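Exercise 7. Predict the joint structure of the components listed below.
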Amino acid sequence: MAKRKRHLLRRPKHSKSLNQIPGTLTYVGNKESVETSLDVIDYNQEQYERFQSKSPQDAFKFVDEDRITWFNIDGLNNVEEIEKLGEYYELHPLVMEDIVNTGQRPKIEEYQDYLFIVAQMLYYKDGEIENEHISMIVGKNYVLTFQEANGDVFDPVRERIETGKGRIRSRSADYLMFALLDAIIDNYFLVIDDMSDRIEALEETLFTTQPSDDITLEIQELKRNILRIRRAVFPLREVIGRLEKIESDLIEEKTNNYIRDLYDHIVQISENIEIYREMIWGLMDMYMTTISNKMNEVMKVLTIMASIFIPLTFIAGIYGMNFEYIPELQWKYSYFVLWGVMIIIFIGMLYYFKRKKWL
Amino acid sequence: MAKRKRHLLRRPKHSKSLNQIPGTLTYVGNKESVETSLDVIDYNQEQYERFQSKSPQDAFKFVDEDRITWFNIDGLNNVEEIEKLGEYYELHPLVMEDIVNTGQRPKIEEYQDYLFIVAQMLYYKDGEIENEHISMIVGKNYVLTFQEANGDVFDPVRERIETGKGRIRSRSADYLMFALLDAIIDNYFLVIDDMSDRIEALEETLFTTQPSDDITLEIQELKRNILRIRRAVFPLREVIGRLEKIESDLIEEKTNNYIRDLYDHIVQISENIEIYREMIWGLMDMYMTTISNKMNEVMKVLTIMASIFIPLTFIAGIYGMNFEYIPELQWKYSYFVLWGVMIIIFIGMLYYFKRKKWL
Amino acid sequence: MAKRKRHLLRRPKHSKSLNQIPGTLTYVGNKESVETSLDVIDYNQEQYERFQSKSPQDAFKFVDEDRITWFNIDGLNNVEEIEKLGEYYELHPLVMEDIVNTGQRPKIEEYQDYLFIVAQMLYYKDGEIENEHISMIVGKNYVLTFQEANGDVFDPVRERIETGKGRIRSRSADYLMFALLDAIIDNYFLVIDDMSDRIEALEETLFTTQPSDDITLEIQELKRNILRIRRAVFPLREVIGRLEKIESDLIEEKTNNYIRDLYDHIVQISENIEIYREMIWGLMDMYMTTISNKMNEVMKVLTIMASIFIPLTFIAGIYGMNFEYIPELQWKYSYFVLWGVMIIIFIGMLYYFKRKKWL
Amino acid sequence: MAKRKRHLLRRPKHSKSLNQIPGTLTYVGNKESVETSLDVIDYNQEQYERFQSKSPQDAFKFVDEDRITWFNIDGLNNVEEIEKLGEYYELHPLVMEDIVNTGQRPKIEEYQDYLFIVAQMLYYKDGEIENEHISMIVGKNYVLTFQEANGDVFDPVRERIETGKGRIRSRSADYLMFALLDAIIDNYFLVIDDMSDRIEALEETLFTTQPSDDITLEIQELKRNILRIRRAVFPLREVIGRLEKIESDLIEEKTNNYIRDLYDHIVQISENIEIYREMIWGLMDMYMTTISNKMNEVMKVLTIMASIFIPLTFIAGIYGMNFEYIPELQWKYSYFVLWGVMIIIFIGMLYYFKRKKWL
Amino acid sequence: MAKRKRHLLRRPKHSKSLNQIPGTLTYVGNKESVETSLDVIDYNQEQYERFQSKSPQDAFKFVDEDRITWFNIDGLNNVEEIEKLGEYYELHPLVMEDIVNTGQRPKIEEYQDYLFIVAQMLYYKDGEIENEHISMIVGKNYVLTFQEANGDVFDPVRERIETGKGRIRSRSADYLMFALLDAIIDNYFLVIDDMSDRIEALEETLFTTQPSDDITLEIQELKRNILRIRRAVFPLREVIGRLEKIESDLIEEKTNNYIRDLYDHIVQISENIEIYREMIWGLMDMYMTTISNKMNEVMKVLTIMASIFIPLTFIAGIYGMNFEYIPELQWKYSYFVLWGVMIIIFIGMLYYFKRKKWL
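Solution:
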């Protein structure tokens, strides 16, 4: 059995470090080593500019009211820089706190001038699902995204903006929000497809290998993984559902169709998760029956061997006795007759077990 | 155990190919080889025309405002032709996308001039349930249906239109929609009846054959199948339920009774699915008890054989010892007396096991 | 194991024969041989008349506006006669269809001039629960009931009308409807009481007999039965619930108290069904533990026998060896000493197993 | 296994005897032998009178408009006397029927002049939970309570009235109702505490005794008991919940706080019931693992004994063979060397099993 | 197995001692020995005073209308002192009763001048979760907290008030309430993290140790613990949820954001609890499979030993027979040939079991 430490829920200790004063900013997570970096994309139908920096202040001069600005921050360690960004966009202190507290469950909060969305990205690491906290601020003409580590799930969106493919350049900030959420949800499909492959592989293993505790462990790991995925997806489903119904100037009428599409996707993912969950739970039962089948087989071998040879050994024992008067011992053909009898018993036994379908 | 690849959910990768730009048309499914073909039926109470083609444009000239037109497209590969149809009927880009993305869950969407319905057809292929994506556009006097492969579930409807049997020729497009949904749902009855037969057959097998991993596998396959059926039927139930309540000029008052009837049917199917599901889940438990019963039987044979012959062999062993002074050995009738003792032990043992009801 | 065919849900193929044109009348069920017969009771406070016939037309002349008329049709084969009745009372074609399609789940439908209620009667046949389709039309001063076979569950109601016992003669048609539904629901009590007896009997059997596949089968049959009962009762509960809330001229104010009473009863039945369901599901677990207990016992016998006699046989084997120089063999009392040793081992073993509580 | 008859739900046949005419009074229950007796307490702040009789008519003269009258009837056999009481207080016939039909589930019904409440008292009898039907009529200045048997759960309330302790004498009839319901619910605490003790005791037994069918039976009995308790408590919770919301002149504003308190209590009981239920269901699993553990132990003893002595016996058997030429037999020290070899094998085996932790 | 008494729900007998007169004050709990002590903190932005006493009356003179007063009472034995406090702040008798009755489930009650909140603190004691009853009165400018024992969960809040860190000194009483609830909920994170560690540790143990009843017991204890945690957390979630929606002058607008934050935390805890619950329930299944795996291994050892040596012993037995004429016995090399045969059988057997993967 592997010795590596298994974390039941890869819990980021608990969103807020204990006894922390509410409303103060401290990064809570397990990716302290990731350096904070900033990536700004500023675009409209005609123009496109991209800028990378370590400090938001360098970037503010690039921000143009007529263009849509997408700030992407990777790494949440450098709390001061994040705070500056928060001040620039006048974010609520509790929002700032939630951005750096990575244990948040997906949620949406409406503020006067912006929407605040928390989601979770999922990826595999050493065979275990990892959650990565993503938060998003959607304003009139800007989108801020905050990631714990430098992920690549948004790359296709960047490319589409750069090359001007699709509708994205001609739409407003809410469409960018949709595109980013769409990228996150598309990623879930990958993760649950992988889950499906692992379930199938395990089903295969169940029947072809000898029962071992490794299989139990793997089933348990699948359970843990599906529970983690569920924890990321189900609240996000509520978020998208509420996004569909929100009445805000920030969401244009025509973007609503796209959000509904998003909702369809996440409902589909949720349904698949539930199905996989049932399958995984079923694996344990399957495993029990295969173990029982194998034990049955072992017992049959034992029973057949013992049932055949124990009586024969008894017979041999009889004629190994040293009584002075055992008539059979003197007769010349006794030995051969006895062999005959034994062979008949042997064949009779085999026939009996054959008829019982144990052979 | 069969070596064939089992797909857990026969997933069409995931409705949308990853990183695809939202709103662009690409066929997503696993029936790429099916050639797109078009079948147009144009009818009213008096007239009936049928036309088959590879291109919708040939068909448009046949379309007559006074008649109801049913376009049926088999095969979703030829995206351009489908696009032309979409332009002709002014369909929303996202609708067009959903038509060719076959992983959609059943849904209904109301648009200004038409209803968009997605459903799933079910059929068996190599003992596994397959889902086939069907989408339907219902307009004022036309119905468009899109199928992945050339199915035959609509043939009875075609026949009724051709021969003018029943109400169908005298009613409007919404009744045609009802007739088509009715055909799909009727098909579900076949599928779940088949499921019922397989459950019964497996129950029978459980008791009559030796336990083997094949049975576990079959139960698992039934589970997968019922989960797939559920995934097709339950959302369609919501669809029909909403169809009942929709307030649209497209649905006539008198068609509502028929839709309610449809709803009754799909509720009934849903209930049966839940019952079959409980039965299938119960099969695993049943199987465990039969395995245990069989193991019990094996153990009894072993125990009886060992309990009878081990003591007897011990006795024989005693008189096979080479001690110089064993008084019994000299006595003339010892051997026969010993046989007597052994037979008494043997019969006593049999009686004991008989009384314990192990024999 | 019994060879008789078990039907999982005693499904009447599926309410509607496949590809049947919606709105046409064909009897769907498995009691084709039952001849249609008609029983008309016409009564008011003062008068009472009863009439039996094969054709409704003979009966129409008996119908008197001032009296309440109860048409009871047994057997749904003679579709034409039923159609005549439908025309006389101006029933909707879909209602007519539902009357003869026996797979319907219990439901209530309000029409202008009448209520349409579908329910299911339950009875045992060869140890399996059978459902019988009953439909009821309740109009201003008439009640029509349609049964698949000639049942006797309504006899007490007939008697009450005939003898004028209770309130029934002095009330209107809705009270008759109540009395008939009450008779059906009373019958459910009988069926679930019987279910309770069978559960208890099976519990008893579980402990007193050797494990066998018959018990697994019986548990499975109980499961099937309770699922069937549930399928009849739960939708009827909704029906009665809606009947309580319906605002219709057909239901008098003072009948409402009786309907509420009916609702109490069916809720009570539903609760019992859920309890029995839990008990039945628990039976499988109980059964598993009794099998395991029995196997444990078998194993103990084997282990005790083997543990005692295998070492003793070994000792006997030692002194059966033919080495030229085994000092013990020459000593005169060796044989007796050895017996002593063996008896001590034997008693020691027994004591050991006694202390382990295996004996 | 005990031979006593176990009743699954201690069903009072079914609230209404079959085919009984609705609205007629017949006692339905299993305590026919209890003689009906009447206990009247008439009190206000200043006065207190108590009167016991067999007939309500004797009591009516004691009833004083200015005082609160509590009629308590024990035993529901004497239907005529109960009927007289019903007439005196002008109760609805269906209420009268529900009073004597003891299978009713807890409910509340509002009438013009009074509230009708049905509850169930719980107590142990021969280790099984028994339900006793209690119904209560709460009017302007009277409370009628009807019990199947002479219980003592109301004694503390009687004492408080007599001695004038607490608020009860200074309050109106609704407070008396509260006090009585409070007494019933307090009693539930006793019953579920007892349940808790039994669960703990059984857990203890599970580990300390040999597996036996008695334990399975006891777990099953606990299941039955908890299901029965649930059946009494859950509907009463709804009753109290509705009582809280009822708008009736009969309930004073200031009594509402007490009813809310009652509701808190019954919610707490419901939660505990659910927890106990989970614990009881878990007992079966626990039991299975302890059986398996015990079987494992049995198998280990067998395997160790057989694995050690079967090879040794084989070796002894080798040198018991009668071949003319077996070189070892002639050598003088063979026997002693062989003993050495055997002891080494023996120790080796012990070490092997020790390392496998089977010893 | 440990002999210590396990309490299923550490029930404080039942919130109200049986037959107690409603509305009278008696401490109900199991911490009778804790002496009641009083700790008063009186503060505003500028001032801070702290006072400890045994009697509230000493403290009343310290109370200043312009400051926020936090009374904390540890130990609920001294009912008279608590009563004095209740009179001073004009608390409702039922509130007073709920403060000293420690079995209350978490709840919130709105009164004219104050809110009454009941919560439960959780901590470990001898490996079992203990609940401690906390009640809180929140008034215009005061907060009263009542604890059963002297806990330390509020210490960080005290420190923040004393040192003036964070917002707390500049806010009103409702913010203090938030800070205290926040401290309680933070504590839950610790408890469930600990739970997570124990689950992981047990998973580890499951595979590395021999099956024993101790593991079953530990799983059962985890179940009990998680059920207890759930019982404390789930109703508190409702409480916080209602607190969010309450319209009261006592809760300032700007505190609402903090309460929403609190709600997010408790929802997160609830979700984790549900996940842990599923994991714990899964442990029993895992345990069963590891037991079965271990038994399988035991059986294989037995079967291999018996299958190899029983036939060999039989062969040795054959040539131990004393027939006068056994031709093989005379031949000189018989013995060596036989050894050869036996070794071949031995190797053949090993190969057979190897191929079956039993070795």
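Discussion. DSSP finds nine helices and seven strands in chain E.
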